[in-house]
Amino acid sequence: MDQTEALIIETIDRHREEILEFARDIYSHAELGYKEFQTSGKFVKKMEQLGLRTEKGFAITGVKAYLNEDKKENASLALLGELDALRIPEHAFANPETNAAHCCGHHAQMAGVFGAALALTVPEIAEKLDGQVVFFATPAEEYGEIEFKNQLREQGKIRYGGGKCELLRIGAFDDIDLCLTHHIRPGNEILVGSGTGNGFVSKVIRVLGKASHAAGAPEKGVNALSAASLGLHRETFRDEDCVRVHPIITKGGNLVNVIPDEVVVETLVRGKTIEAFTDAAKKTDRSFKAGAIAMGAKVEISTLPGYLPTLAE
């Protein structure tokens, strides 16, 4: 270990409590994708306190803070931290205002980026770096609330439900040569860099039936919930394709004594390869169309790109 490396470690150790407090604050105030305004603001404040120039509003809530901008032509490295959490209202530390909880460890990612910024902005360390470092808070890694994100698309605010896809589209990575991210895992392990991961597409499935009084005239209705339930019975897939189809029903009807005339299902269709999840997506569509036909209902399926598979080198 050289003197610079030793100084980095010493700096991080000296700021241990400040870094942990930043992580606890984010953990206790979790926010959902494309809504991480408070989390983003806290990151901006920390970066500006370190004297870094910041740019805000990338894909709604994303933030970039720049170190050594005069060396960006040599190399530009981005340290990524993800802003969003998962909607888990029953979690012990869920934010009551957002129903979000940091069960995926993004609070630790943000703390890691903050800790790196604390160390790398020390003048003796910064001058040893032969390139630019961008501390990048990225939005909407978790692919949930599909209907909400579709509303943002309709409003022209985004085109993609995944934050990094949107950042790529708007050119937010154009000034970056290399990205580095990390993630915590069970057992207090830290994963740095890349590994394998499924790709996926997202779907919003609207099943349309006909409302009728469930007790007095059930035969006059077309039960959209029954049609959707039939669609949930999917085919099996090859184990080696690692296919996962995991839907939720976000609307199951309007009133218990009325035959449901509209049911909304959100799902992701995942697979190890593009071919695998494309095939699974077609089969998923076929299942819901078959359920609708069987019950005399109609179905509308909206499919949007999620993420590509991550391949190990």
Describe this structure in words.
It is elongated and about 80 Å long. The protein has 9 helices and 14 strands. The chain is of the alpha+beta class. The strands form 4 sheets. Strands 1-2-6-3-7 form a 5-stranded mixed β-sheet, sandwiched between helices. Strands 10, 11, 12, 13 and 14 form a 5-stranded antiparallel β-sheet that branches. Strands 4-5 form a two-stranded antiparallel ribbon. Helix 1 (3-14) crosses helix 4, helix 2 runs antiparallel to helix 4 (106-120) and helix 8 packs antiparallel against helix 9. The mean pLDDT is 94.
Name the overall outline.
elongated
What is the strand tally? 14
- Topology pattern, helix = H, strand = E: HHHEEEEEHHEHHEEEEHEEEHE
Radius of gyration computed on alpha carbons: 23 Å
**Considering DSSP H and I runs of 4 or more, what fraction of the residues is helical?**
25-40%
How many angstroms does the end-to-end distance come to?
A: 28 Å
Main-sheet strand order equals: 1-2-6-3-7
Average pLDDT metric: 94
Strand content: 15-25%
**Main sheet record:** 5 strands, mixed
Structural classification: alpha+beta
Low-confidence stretches: none
Number of helices in the DSSP assignment: 9
Brief sketch in words of this structure:
The protein is an alpha+beta fold and 313 residues long. Helices cover 33% and strands 25% of the residues. A five-stranded mixed beta sheet has the order 1-2-6-3-7, with helices on both faces.
